[in-house]
């Protein structure tokens, strides 16, 4: 029997912004029921590839398949199966968190999920404060809840715990794990080794628009650990890039 096709497959993706080569034949995949953490320095291409997998941007060449579909121009039925948490949240400032989440939940016919999401992420205490008056970390939690409404099959989370206090980070990690445990394919970008270490079933280190190394935390970290591997791979990529320029 052949292995199942992973829900997210990125194959040979190249992309330029003008003369800037942002992604160079990037290839990776993210399996079902697993957390895949994408690590890489600023400008490595993480947001670009996530936006392409979310259908917000089209690669110059190469293919991306999410749940077997090209996300660019995918229909509403596909989009309902994919949850997205953007880096800046993209939330409407004048709306109150509970109102927003109930609105999103009605689109998915899943209003029953809201009490547990609100409880697990500690949104209860600020549910009636307008989003523009929330702290960055509180907004982050609302954005995560919005991404998880509707129990998507795939979720893309861009730095989900950045700026959160230690308690909130644990809550977010618990929720991300329970999302994985119900079979969801979770893709997380992060700059935190601790986050990757604690969450990841698979790690992908990207550097200068390509995959430098991928595998389990143990495979990628080897004997020196994740942090050492990251620094040696990303330093090497920076040196190569400087030499090319
Ligand atoms: N809209 C754009 N126009 C021009 N260049 C862009 C654009 N978006 C990204 N880039 C460039 O493409 C490269 C990859 O950027 P990208 O945002 O994907 O990196 P990243 O790994 O997400 O970085 P960060 O960790 O800072 O979020 C960078 O050199 C960036 O300057």
UniProtKB/TrEMBL annotation:
<dbReference type="GO" id="GO:0005886">
    <property type="term" value="C:plasma membrane"/>
</dbReference>
<keyword id="KW-0067">ATP-binding</keyword>
<keyword id="KW-0547">Nucleotide-binding</keyword>
<feature type="domain" description="ABC transporter">
    <location>
        <begin position="8"/>
        <end position="233"/>
    </location>
</feature>
<dbReference type="InterPro" id="IPR027417">
    <property type="entry name" value="P-loop_NTPase"/>
</dbReference>
<dbReference type="InterPro" id="IPR003439">
    <property type="entry name" value="ABC_transporter-like_ATP-bd"/>
</dbReference>
<dbReference type="InterPro" id="IPR017871">
    <property type="entry name" value="ABC_transporter-like_CS"/>
</dbReference>
<dbReference type="GO" id="GO:0005524">
    <property type="term" value="F:ATP binding"/>
</dbReference>
<dbReference type="Pfam" id="PF00005">
    <property type="entry name" value="ABC_tran"/>
</dbReference>
<protein>
    <submittedName>
        <fullName>ABC-2 type transport system ATP-binding protein</fullName>
    </submittedName>
</protein>
<keyword id="KW-0046">Antibiotic resistance</keyword>
<dbReference type="InterPro" id="IPR050763">
    <property type="entry name" value="ABC_transporter_ATP-binding"/>
</dbReference>
<keyword id="KW-0813">Transport</keyword>
<dbReference type="GO" id="GO:0016887">
    <property type="term" value="F:ATP hydrolysis activity"/>
</dbReference>
<dbReference type="InterPro" id="IPR003593">
    <property type="entry name" value="AAA+_ATPase"/>
</dbReference>
<dbReference type="GO" id="GO:0046677">
    <property type="term" value="P:response to antibiotic"/>
</dbReference>
């Amino acid at each position: 029997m052949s292995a199942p096709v992973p829900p997210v497959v990125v194959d040979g993706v190249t992309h330029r912004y003008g003369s800037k080569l942002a992604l160079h034949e990037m290839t990776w995949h993210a399996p079902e029921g697993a957390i895949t953490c994408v690590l890489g320095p600023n400008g490595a291409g993480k947001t670009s590839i996530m936006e392409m997998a979310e259908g917000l941007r089209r690669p110059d060449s190469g293919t991306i398949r999410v749940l077997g579909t090209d996300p660019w121009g995918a229909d509403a039925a596909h989009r309902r199966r994919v949850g997205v948490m953007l880096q800046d949240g993209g939330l409407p400032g004048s709306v109150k968190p509970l109102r927003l989440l109930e609105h999103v939940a009605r689109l998915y016919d899943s209003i029953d999920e809201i009490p547990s999401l609100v409880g697990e992420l500690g949104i209860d205490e600020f549910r009636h404060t307008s989003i523009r008056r929330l702290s960055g970390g509180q907004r982050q939690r609302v954005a995560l809840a919005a991404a998880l409404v509707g129990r998507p099959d795939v979720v893309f989370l861009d730095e989900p715990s950045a700026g959160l206090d230690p308690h909130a980070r644990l809550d977010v990690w618990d929720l991300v794990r329970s999302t994985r445990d119900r079979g969801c394919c979770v893709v997380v970008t992060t700059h935190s080794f601790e986050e990757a270490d604690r969450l990841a079933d698979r790690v992908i280190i990207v550097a200068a628009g390509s995959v430098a190394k991928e595998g389990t935390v143990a495979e990628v970290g080897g004997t020196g650990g994740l942090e050492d591997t990251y620094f040696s791979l990303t330093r090497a990529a920076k040196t190569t890039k400087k030499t090319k320029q």
